[in-house]
Amino acid sequence: MYEELALFELAIWVGLPAWIANATPVLGGGGNPIDGGRYFRDGRRLLGNGKTIRGFIVGIIFGTLTGLGQFIIAPYLRPFLAMFVTVTPEMDYVLFMQVPVAILMSFGALTGDLVGSFIKRRVNVESGDPSPFMDQLGFIIMALIFAAPIFDPGAIFVTILIITTFFIHWVSNALGYLLGLKKHPW
Predict the structure, then answer these.
(1) What angle do the packed helices 2-23 and 134-147 form, to 10 degrees?
(2) Could you give the maximum distance between any two Cα atoms of the chain, in Å?
């Protein structure tokens, strides 16, 4: 039982930079839209006003700071983890992921969110309207793709992370809405 819990916790550990990067652009408080107000050939905005340069930068900064924090505290967490489970090399690899991984995951998460917005505009989903699966999973899948050249956490961690992200995304959006940081609870 402790090993399954450790796998779950380490999968969340892997996703933290992407989750934080995806959640914090609202702290940027608006600004100029990334698409500069431009329209695609279908007559719809490329991305919309909700995707801003400042938000993108804030997301990368916070995601990267999360990774830096993880890097700093990992050596202190390992003995605690070892009290409950036999720490495998795969667990060590995930626990001690490097800061460049966090940077790539942050950038990938935000890029995944932009790709999702672009696709949503093409299929006539308004900015802020829900798009099941794309909203919940696009950012984490793109984060993992961006980090893949230098980081391979293994199938078990990726699977747990994707499933967990699907549900956590709903909870975090509802919380953001209740705190007044988001216009909609999705």
Answers:
(1) 100
(2) 59
| 33 strand-pairing partners | 52
* Mean pLDDT taken over the chain: 89
CA dist 166 to 36, 98, 171, Å?
Answer: 30, 25, 9
Torsion of CA 142, 24, 48, 33, to 10 degrees: -110
Question: If you count them, how many residues does the chain have?
Answer: 186
Question: What is the per-residue pLDDT for 132?
Answer: 66
Task: State the pLDDT at residue 143.
Answer: 97
Confidence at residue 7, expressed as pLDDT on a 0 to 100 scale = 87
SS3 category, 39: strand
Beta bridge partners of 45: 39
Main-chain dihedrals φ then ψ at residue 130, nearest 5 degrees: -70, 150
CA angle 156, 158, 164 (to 5 degrees): 100
- What are residue 52's DSSP bridge partners? 33
Mean pLDDT, to the nearest integer, of 69-97? 92
